[in-house]
Automatic annotation (TrEMBL):
GO molecular function, one term: GTP binding
Protein purpose: Necessary for flagellar biosynthesis. May be involved in translocation of the flagellum.
Membrane-topology annotation of the record: Peripheral membrane protein
Source species of the chain: Gracilinema caldarium (strain ATCC 51460 / DSM 7334 / H1) (Treponema caldarium)
GO BP of this protein: bacterial-type flagellum organization; protein transport; SRP-dependent cotranslational protein targeting to membrane
The name this protein goes by in its record: Flagellar biosynthesis protein FlhF
Localization, UniProt: Cell membrane
Chain ranges of the SRP54-type proteins GTP-binding domain: 187-385
Keyword ATP-binding among record annotations: no
Alphabetic keyword roster: Bacterial flagellum biogenesis, Bacterial flagellum protein export, Cell membrane, Cell projection, Cilium, Flagellum, GTP-binding, Membrane, Nucleotide-binding, Protein transport, Transport
Domain AAA+ ATPase span(s) in chain numbering: 186-387
Amino acid sequence: MEYFTEQAPTHAECIRKIKEKYGDNAKILMRKTVRIGGFLGLFTRDGVEMTGIVSNEPLRYATDPLKNVRKPLDLEEEKRKILAVANPKMDPTLQTVLQEVRSLKEKLESTQIQSKPADEHPNLLKISELLYSNDFSHNYTLSIQNRIKRDFSLEALEDFDALQSQVVEWIGESINVYQEPNSNTKPRVLILVGPTGVGKTTTIAKLAALYGVVGMNGLNPLSVRMITIDNYRIAAKQQIETYGNIMQIPVSCVETYEDLRKTIAMYAQEVDLVLVDTIGKSPRDAVKLAEMKEILNACGSTAEVHLAMAASTKFSDIKEIMQQYEPFNYRSIIVTKLDETTRVGNMISALAERGKTVSFITNGQKVPQDIERATAVRFLINLEGFRINRQKIEEKFAYATRDVL
């Protein structure tokens, strides 16, 4: 099996090139618009890029003309074929193809959401379009559609305001907020893990300010310490030490399991909360993640692990990150960089589908202002296109009134 990528100014010309080079056994998996031509980045123009595979098996033509009709592309089958040939982690080209197949699957699912069967009520279609525009997943949107069909009569569907108000409440009910444990164990250890670039170190500093300077929920500030095991990233140590000096919160840097164990033991009697900053790792780097987990085991079984993820992350990537960090037994999600996106359906869908809670939200770089406890209300007011009754949802979800700093 051979993989190819071809570019051309038009769709027809790209198809012609593929047929000339690879023959009738070529199968196109992905098509996208790209910029081609030009000089030094100037005078480029729109073009078409197609990626696909060439099967080594010769085409067989049956006598039955219906058997020659091209069957719809089975994406899962194509992925299995690719995986059967080689390990995608060993071949960057295969990894790219698999990623494009996943993206194509998402687009096909989105198209299914937006399709308009003749028997669907117009208001049901409008709700589906709103959910899609907010980046809710196919399965999440389908579950809302089914619930509407089950709970709303045809007459009730005519009242669109009432319909969307109910959908907003259902979305809010699907958001589970993390409840901090009531434990007398000292010190309480909170570990923050996550991919590179999601703002873990800044979030650790915000949490330190929230608990150790401002005081959570009107309570007196706690005795807080910060520990970092990120001694690889340039200026990482200096960054967290700078935050610590400003807030007068001590910072320790460790590299090994034994160093971390001794440091936490040293804080056992005098400190209320220890915040541990970790190394940003790609969720695909299983070896490095395992090494980091081995070090973090020094924090003990009562340590709380929270997974930090940027709000702008694609739904498919969110699911993959969640899956790859499962060995850390993380208790909740901290959603970072909410200010960098206008859509929250991707995060709400992933949290609901994997049954995860959300603990904090960050929405800027300021320490400690740009952090708050996560609430259903905070997500709902970020929905685009929905008419939000702020008073109603705050009354509905009063159990989780947000604590804005």
